[in-house]
């Protein structure tokens, strides 16, 4: 680029002189200097007319060399001509002027520029040196800076987050509106305050420590959540994020602290935490383990009990099967059905049972209940699962089952013999009959009653009686097949069911087998006992359509078997039924008769055959039946014996007879002995002696005026027991007579041991006494025997004079019979008590 030299014009004015003072050769050195200046530079006259321009000016403003000379500097540097006059004046006074304006180029382009104008004397001429500078870059930078500042200011000012500039000592240098709003102080007020002034007392220590550490250069950045106290004294929470700017010495210069108002967030979080705490407390309060599991088996929540049941502290996202069962896969077998899978399958709450081995090796059983856990849209997200150890329930159930089984056994079995009991028997009998009904086969019921078992019980004691029953039960069990049922139906009664009988002869065989099994002597303690039994047999379907009918038939047959002389068996036949009915009716009516006091006593005098005096009265019971009239004892005594009614009835007879005798005595009649019949059942009943003693005491009758009649067979059945009882009765002072003597088989040896006073000759011998030589011989023998044993003899059934005389002649001291009197009611028999009759 060639040097630009402005051609000068010669002028006579001072200015022209000055300008003229810059001829080409003289100015060459000046021009060289100007060109060395990187900025545009000119030499002008004091009025601004251009004389010399450097290369930079030509490049910057775009003028050609010849164009400069017509230009005034004012038009280039943005200074109007008139203004430049003012500039020229200042220049003249000051010698220097600085000027910034819009510079204009030849092509009309403008740019911000500056111009430094300096008056100088060059080549003895006063000139103005103008150096311009393009400030475009500076202007741009300044403008950018200004804008950025502006923006920052706005950001600072309008930011929703609180912003502060802090000094390391904690003073607020500058705070934005958001922070002012947060703490309630104006930025002016804050300027004199420190961080500590705004900090909640509980957070003061922590804040002070952090500020110290910042000052010590330990933290450039901090992020904390803390409580502030606002101007109103309320607690507000702020999340503080501060960055510290360090100075050249490496010390914190100032800090920029952003404070986010998290009061609401904190409150929400606190509420949420409280809610969570509440929820956790509630679930922890559940004693059973409770967990929430998502669809991937991850545990979302659990209570304390579940924590105890699992393996230590669960990790985040812990899998339920791993935590609770130490498995690597979800539960799936019958011992561990998967509740989640079940809920997924059914979509409903489910209950499954888990079997688990406990630490001690025992097996525990858990009931697991799982409900679907759904989101707000109702989609399944997992399950809520609770489990309960129900081992104890199973154990209790097991125990209950065992108890029930035991109870069922007890309910169905006889405690003494362990044989099935009556209820069990009936249940089985009904089943048997049903089966027999279907198959067309027969079934049989065998009712076994032990003969005279009562004697054993009452004479040898109940303990021994029980042992006999057990041994009999054993024998029966052993002699019967497993398919047959043998039960104890009560007392000394056993009952046997035979099933599926194709041939009735088979029943016969079994009945014999039973008798055979019972026949060997039973050895118990020192006793050898002969136990026999009578069997009544009924057959299905012939003898009864239902169990009760069949039993009734067997019972009837048993009765007949006993009547037939015991130790035998009897099949039921239909004709037995009529008699059974009759007996049944009689029994209930007799029972009622005893209650209604329909029994009466008649008395028959017993006469001293030698003196004719009444020596005694025999009390004979009658039943004054409201419809049937006076019923003789022969028609109801056997039934009373069989049903046991004889016991209360006999007691009544004894009491009434004693009372009557005592009444006669108190009425002044000469005392006589009263004879009362004692039945076999009464005799063997354990309390006979006590009962007699009580009645005597009650009626105040002297025992010497009471005679008890027992039959020959009663004492001969069990001699030892009889002697024992008789001895006790005799000890009371009561007389004892053997009734119907001669009909049984009394041995002399036994008779000698009985504490008797009287033998009574049976009516049957008296009847034909005078015509039958055999009877005569018997009577004679009885009288002789009695006398040899020092016993009195009385003959009954004396109807004729011949009989009376005959007996008297044969030495029989006493007698009774129709010849003297029939049995009469008490009021009528009194006549016998007055004058003594002599024949
Ligand atoms: N043909 C005839 N009979 C005569 C004559 N003299 C008396 N008799 C009857 O002979 C029976 C005598 O009583 P028993 O041999 O002890 O025989 C009694 C006795 O074994 C029993 N009995 C009566 N009352 C009672 C009682 O209170 N308790 C008990 N256990 N048995 C009684 O009933 C049986 C029958 O009693 P009864 O019918 O009262 O019959 C009485 C009586 O009426 C006579 O000259 N000719």
UniProtKB/TrEMBL annotation:
Write down the CDD domains for this protein, in alphabetical order: EAL, GGDEF, PAS
The EAL domain is annotated at: 583-837
Q: Which reaction does it catalyse?
A: 3',3'-c-di-GMP + H2O = 5'-phosphoguanylyl(3'->5')guanosine + H(+)
State the Pfam families in the record: EAL (PF00563), GGDEF (PF00990), PAS (PF00989), PAS_3 (PF08447), PAS_4 (PF08448)
Which GO molecular function entries does the Swiss-Prot or TrEMBL record give?
A: cyclic-guanylate-specific phosphodiesterase activity
Query: SUPFAM superfamilies from the xrefs?
Result: EAL domain-like (SSF141868), Nucleotide cyclase (SSF55073), PYP-like sensor domain (PAS domain) (SSF55785)
Its name, as the record gives it, is PAS domain S-box-containing protein/diguanylate cyclase (GGDEF) domain-containing protein
Q: Which species is this UniProt entry from?
A: Geothermobacter hydrogeniphilus
């Amino acid at each position: 680029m060639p040097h630009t030299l402005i051609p000068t014009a010669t002028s006579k004015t001072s200015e022209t002189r000055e300008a003229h003072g810059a001829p080409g050769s003289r100015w060459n050195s000046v021009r060289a200097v100007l060109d060395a200046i990187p900025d545009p530079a000119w030499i002008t006259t004091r009025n601004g007319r251009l004389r010399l321009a450097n290369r930079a000016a030509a490049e910057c403003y775009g003028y050609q060399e010849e164009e400069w000379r017509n230009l005034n500097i004012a038009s280039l540097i943005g200074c109007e001509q008139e203004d430049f006059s003012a500039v020229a004046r200042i220049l003249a006074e000051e010698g220097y002027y600085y000027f910034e304006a819009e510079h204009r180029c030849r092509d009309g382009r403008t740019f911000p520029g500056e111009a430094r104008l300096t008056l100088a004397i060059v080549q003895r001429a006063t000139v103005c040196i103008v150096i311009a500078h393009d400030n475009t870059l500076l202007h741009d930078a300044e403008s950018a800076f200004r804008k950025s500042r502006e923006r920052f200011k706005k950001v600072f000012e309008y930011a929703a987050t609180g912003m502060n500039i802090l000094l390391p000592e904690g003073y607020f240098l500058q705070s934005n509106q958001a922070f002012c709003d947060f703490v309630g102080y104006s930025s002016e007020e804050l300027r004199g305050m420190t961080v500590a002034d705004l900090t909640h007392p509980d957070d003061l220590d922590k804040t002070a420590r952090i500020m110290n550490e910042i000052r010590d250069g330990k933290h450039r950045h901090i992020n904390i959540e803390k409580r502030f106290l606002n101007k109103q004294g309320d607690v507000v929470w702020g999340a503080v994020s501060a960055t510290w700017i360090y100075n050249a010495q490496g010390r914190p210069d100032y800090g920029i602290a952003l404070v986010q108002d998290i009061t609401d967030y904190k409150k929400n979080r606190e509420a949420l935490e409280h809610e969570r705490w509440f929820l956790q407390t509630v679930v922890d309060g559940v004693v059973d383990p409770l967990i929430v599991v998502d669809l991937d088996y991850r545990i979302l929540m659990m209570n304390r009990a579940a924590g105890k049941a699992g393996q230590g502290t669960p990790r985040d996202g812990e899998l339920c099967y791993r935590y609770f069962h130490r498995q690597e896969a979800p539960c799936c077998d019958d011992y561990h059905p998967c509740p989640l899978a079940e809920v997924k399958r059914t979509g409903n709450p489910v209950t499954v049972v888990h079997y688990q081995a406990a630490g001690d090796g025992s097996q525990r059983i858990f009931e697991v209940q799982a409900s679907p856990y759904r989101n707000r849209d109702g989609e399944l997200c997992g399950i809520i699962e609770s489990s309960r150890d129900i081992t104890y329930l199973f154990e209790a159930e097991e125990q209950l089952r065992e108890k029930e089984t035991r109870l069922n056994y007890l309910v169905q079995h006889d405690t003494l013999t362990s044989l099935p009991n009556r209820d069990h028997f009936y249940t089985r009998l009904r089943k048997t009959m049903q089966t027999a009904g279907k198959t067309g086969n027969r079934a049989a019921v065998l009712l076994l009653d032990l003969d005279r078992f009562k004697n054993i019980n009452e004479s040898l004691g109940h303990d021994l009686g029980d042992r006999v029953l057990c041994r009999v039960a054993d024998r029966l069990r052993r002699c019967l097949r497993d398919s047959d049922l043998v039960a104890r139906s009560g007392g000394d009664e056993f009952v046997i069911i035979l099933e599926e009988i194709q041939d009735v002869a088979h029943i016969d065989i079994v009945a014999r087998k039973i008798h055979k099994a019972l026949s060997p002597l039973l050895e118990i303690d020192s006793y050898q006992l002969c136990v026999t039994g009578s069997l009544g047999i009924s057959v299905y379907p012939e003898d009864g359509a239902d169990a009760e009918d069949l039993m009734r038939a067997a019972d009837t047959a048993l009765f007949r078997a006993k009547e037939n002389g015991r130790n035998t068996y009897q099949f039921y036949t239909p004709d037995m039924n009529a008699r059974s009915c009759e007996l049944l009716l009689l029994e209930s009516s007799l029972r009622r008769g005893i209650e209604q006091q329909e029994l009466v006593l008649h008395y028959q005098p017993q006469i001293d055959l030698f003196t004719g005096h009444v020596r005694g009265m025999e009390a004979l019971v009658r039943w004054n039946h409201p419809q049937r009239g006076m019923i003789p004892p022969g028609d109801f005594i056997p039934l009373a014996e069989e049903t046991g009614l004889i016991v209360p009835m006999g007691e009544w007879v004894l009491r009434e007879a004693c009372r009557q005798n005592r009444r006669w005595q108190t009425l002044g009649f000469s005392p006589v002995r009263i004879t009362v019949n004692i039945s076999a059942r009464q005799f063997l009943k354990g309390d006979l002696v006590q009962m007699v003693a009580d009645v005597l005491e009650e009626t105040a009758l002297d025992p010497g005026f009471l005679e008890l009649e027992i039959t020959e067979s009663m004492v001969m059945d069990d001699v030892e027991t009889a002697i024992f009882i008789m001895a006790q009765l005799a000890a009371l002072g009561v007389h004892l007579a053997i009734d119907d003597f001669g009909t049984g088989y009394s041995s002399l040896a036994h008779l000698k041991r009985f504490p008797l006073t009287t033998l009574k000759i049976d009516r049957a011998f008296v009847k034909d006494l005078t015509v039958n030589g055999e009877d005569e011989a018997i009577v004679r023998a009885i009288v002789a025997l009695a006398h040899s044993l020092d016993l009195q003899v009385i003959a009954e059934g004396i109807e004729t004079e011949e009989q009376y005389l005959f007996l008297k002649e044969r030495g029989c001291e006493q007698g009774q019979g129709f010849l003297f009197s029939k049995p009469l009611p008490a009021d009528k028999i009194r006549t016998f008590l007055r004058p003594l009759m002599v024949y």
